[in-house]
Give the backbone structure.
Amino acid sequence: MGESAAWKSHMAMGKGAASGNNIVLIGMPGAGKSTVGVVLAKHLGCRFVDSDIVIQEKTGLLLHEIIEKQGLDGFLKVENEINAALEARRSIIATGGSVIYGKEAMRHLKVMGKVVYLKLSYQSIERRLGDLNERGVAVREGQSLLDLYNERVPYYEQYADIILDCEDKMIRDIVAEIKERLS
């Protein structure tokens, strides 16, 4: 299926409304949401939006600076508000890993389009991530990456329209599988 045909197929599935024609990627930090999102957008001939960058643009701060200045709860509030007001049309939207804590944001994103969870094992996430604080990962004091993973996975699964196992898969294979599952 060609690029425009894949998008047309996605649109024909009832996703043609002005606010419902997006693909929203969720998952743990390091799962590849931004990388997959850019490649998928190129394949489908649509826009790419990284909600973490939107947050940084709107606040004028890097993610870890927001956490340092406002604390984790302050960051989660900002993230929820910005994602709940996000406007996009015919776009692939890569979200921050903690977006799933914001009920208003997730309700809005589900109206905006199909939510795809890029699922990876804890071991893969651990290998991919560097310094959690420098990366702007929303983690509570004393909380380990494993704790965070175990806390978030049920939310990702709850909100996902499509759960995509990305373990040991190349980016092009993930993109092809998303296109196939949406057609």
